[in-house]
Amino acid sequence: MTQISPQALETAVRQYRDPYLEKDLYELGAVKNLAADDSGKVTLMVELPYPSKGIAGALKEIVTNALENVDGVDSAEVHVGQKIHAYKNQKDIPSVAGVKNIIAVSSGKGGVGKSTTAVNLALALKAEGARVGILDADIYGPSIGMMLGVPEGKRPDTRENKYFVPMEAHGLQANSMAFVVTDKTPMVWRGPMVSGAVMQLLQQTLWDELDYLIIDMPPGTGDIQLTLAQKVPVTGAVIVTTPQDIALLDGKKGIEMFRKVDIPVLGVVENMSVHICSNCGHEEPLFGHGGGERIAEEYDTTLLGQLPLHMTIREQTDSGLPSVIAEPDSEVARRYRDIARRVGAELSTRERNLTGSISSVSVTEH
């Protein structure tokens, strides 16, 4: 039998380049074990540093084929998993118990689809294999409960009359001011009360070993947003905008705000990039074109993805079944999952928080 060359095996594995981090598996430190036995069988263990269930099958197929083309290899078995670490937040604010990474989803103004993006991003990260929670910090207009289909009037359980047990919705752990007050209670609060309420919800919820907690921030860049950005241990922020000039202007303010408090902006999501006609499928850029790309380029950040203005996105979210859950194989769900992988990959390039909780590992088999 032909002797299998370890160098040839390594060369074969290096043929695969990660589509998000643009490095091979060795450069990523993702190769955990590569072994060949006397019968010509090769076994490879791969561990990607971000939620990646959606690309695990393609990775496995490409690398298996490459390995089986090496002289002397009779068969190859590739196992693909992922390991998500805790990464540093701004100014080393103490971490929240049970949470590795906090991602703030923010917009410079209302009406750009920030909450819809936050919910679908959370569900997409979960679909990619992560443990995810969502906190509705939009005190004046909490909508996450409705979007996740949590029945009106349902209240979270409490422990020791002090801690909230997060609601479970579509596999997410969720909490919101809407779960504590009725939707008919107007939030007539001053800034300090709002930030105090958000901090209470964040710190007094018993989050259970989350890889990511998505925070749906209040829209705008005023005192409340700045206070929250300074007090919440945020690992990274995602800015939601539309191609409209006024929305882009406000989106830029959002990026400036996060940079002011040393929170890395992971990228920009452009909502309503094109309108798709429900009758004929014709696409038209109602709000302008290329705005998200311009803002990403100007601020040296990433355009995470562009989402169409489509009636089904609104209908599905309003009915409590967001697109990622309602139509998991649709183009819109595919785009959200692509954004989720980009966010996770971008976060994985940051410095680790060694004081954070233990990294979680999950193995994806296909």
From TrEMBL:
Keywords: ATP-binding, Hydrolase, Iron, Iron-sulfur, Metal-binding, Nucleotide-binding
Residues reported in the UniProt entry to bind ATP: G108, K109, G110, G111, V112, G113, K114, S115
GO MF, one example: metal ion binding
Keyword Iron-sulfur (UniProt): yes
Domain MIP18 family-like, chain residue ranges per copy: 7-80
Pfam families registered for this protein in UniProt: FeS_assembly_P, ParA
SUPFAM superfamilies: Fe-S cluster assembly (FSCA) domain-like (SSF117916), P-loop containing nucleoside triphosphate hydrolases (SSF52540)
GO annotations of cellular component type: cytosol
InterPro entries according to UniProt: FSCA_dom_sf, MIP18-like, Mrp-like_CS, Mrp/NBP35_ATP-bd, NUBPL-like, P-loop_NTPase, YlxH/NBP35
Keyword Metal-binding: yes
A GO BP entry: iron-sulfur cluster assembly
NCBIfam families the UniProt entry points to: PRK11670.1 (NF008669)
Subunit text: Homodimer.
Alphabetized HAMAP family for the sequence: Mrp_NBP35 (MF_02040)
Homology family: In the N-terminal section; belongs to the MIP18 family.
Role this protein plays: Binds and transfers iron-sulfur (Fe-S) clusters to target apoproteins. Can hydrolyze ATP.
Name of protein: Iron-sulfur cluster carrier protein
Biological source species: Marinobacter salinexigens
Taxonomic lineage from the root: Bacteria, Pseudomonadati, Pseudomonadota, Gammaproteobacteria, Pseudomonadales
